[in-house]
Amino acid sequence: PNWVDEARRFAPSLNPLLYAEGDRETIVAEAGPFDLVVVSYGLMTRETERFCSRTWQTLVLDEAQAIKNYQTKRFQAVTEIPAEFRLATTGTPIENNLDELWTLFHFLNPGLLGGRDLFTKRFSNPIENGSDPRARARLRDTVKPFILRRLKSEVLHELPPRTEITLRVEMEKEEKALYESLRRKAAERFENDKEKKDTLAVLAELMKLRRLCCHPDLVVPNAEVEASKLEAFKELVEELLENGHKALVFSQFVDVLGILRTHLDRMGVSYQYLDGGTSSKERAKRVAEFQAGEGDLFLISLKAGGTGLNLTAADFVIHYDPWWNPAVEDQASDRAYRMGQTRPVTVYRLVAKGTIEEKIVELHRSKRDLASSLLEGTDTETRLDSEQLVALLQGSDGA
Fold first, then answer.
1. What is the pLDDT of residues 333-354, one digit of tens each?
2. What pLDDT sits at residue 186?
3. In 2, 57, 120, 264, which residue has its Cα 20 to 30 A from 256's Cα atom?
4. In angstroms, rounded to a whole number, what is the distance separating the alpha carbons of residues 222 and 162?
């Protein structure tokens, strides 16, 4: 729905058609000059055959990182649709590793980077292990003619200032003891070299620690341990509302949003809510209501609402928990910091002091310009291996 609204606003000569309403078969069959068919990735994947029944003049993938996994039906579907011109727009062309860039270019310009195995051999492995210093430059020179990169600061000069604040929250004594107990237990488990290689097992332990930082009850039900971050969040919300501000609140965990909703209800705070289970129609309705002034906060799950929304009614953004890749967080923050925003925007990141969350924020320095390592030649790591993940479980004393 956001694409339809924006097309009507900025390109009135186009006729946007939302492929979720009416006779969908007719929409595809009869689409002509100036018609813009807007379809979700999910519907496109389920009805690929219909979209393949004709050749399109232009095929645009918005938030193109959605096809980053070459093994998915979504990726296979979009590469089958006939089109004379293809364009991919994304703020995160590389979220985790260089293989995702190959996937995008296989859609855009098949063959440019060779087959996937050849790409891995010529570029991914040498760049990631540092065995060929020239591999990065060769890849950058190959893709550069096909990339138009624009930073927000370059194209939206009228935007007001944006401030980012990391709010480090000190855990209470019992909460810290519980965290340390789980961390030490996990660290001891992976002292064995064989166990270290099980990346999924390491990630599972890291996930427990991250969730405990959000609220102890998520890991140890009925722990009766105070959640320091929740208290800090409530204080921040009270301060913002007293000063007449509206805020977007992001978390990657839906059950965390559930806890926040319970406490906001007790506080008498009005809010809108959106997660992966919110229908497209309801999503558009809640966005419109928030923009019209209904609700002081908008609680949003990071994956479901980190893109495709205009929420300029808010001038504050709160990230309740940090995500591995800061580019994803930045895209979420940009729901408020975008064209149409007239007030300064402040972004708060709540981080539990002395925990895995602080280490994730430290990783942001190397991860923030993951794409820039290719586009501008700066040095940065491209993925974390199991050894690096295990290192995140270590305490400041190395235990």
1. 989 888 778 888 999 999 999 9
2. 86
3. 2
4. 39
CA torsion angle 8 12 14 19 (round to 10): 10
Backbone region of residue 45 per phi and psi (left: phi > 0; alpha: psi in -120 to 50; beta: other values):
alpha
| CB under 8 A, 24+ apart: contacts of 259-268 | 259/214, 259/215, 259/217, 259/218, 259/230, 260/230, 260/233, 260/299, 260/320, 261/299, 263/230, 263/234, 264/237, 264/297, 264/299, 267/234, 267/237, 267/238
DSSP code for 171:
P
Dihedral of CA atoms 211, 213, 217, 220 in degrees, nearest 10, equals: 80
Backbone angles phi, psi at 299, to 5 degrees: -90, 125
Pick 257 or 124 by higher pLDDT. 257
The residue whose two tokens read 């105070």 is 226
The DSSP H or E segment spanning 240 is helix 228-242
How far CA 305 is from CA of 1, 123, 215, 277, 321, in Å, comes to: 13, 33, 22, 11, 15
The confidence score (pLDDT) of residue 378 equals 35
Cβ-contact 61, 40 below 8 angstroms: no
Distances from the Cα of 191 to the Cα of 187, 205, 388, angstroms: 7, 14, 13
Strands 83-89 and 56-62: parallel
Task: Supply angle C-alpha 16, 19, 22, rounded to 5.
Answer: 100
Q: What share of the chain is helix, strand, coil (3-state, %, to 5)?
A: 50, 15, 35
pTM of the shown model: 0.68
CB atoms within 10 A of CB 38: 17
Is 68 within 8 Å of 95 (Cβ atoms)? yes
| pLDDT tens-digit readout, 36-71 | 999 999 899 999 999 999 999 999 999 898 898 899
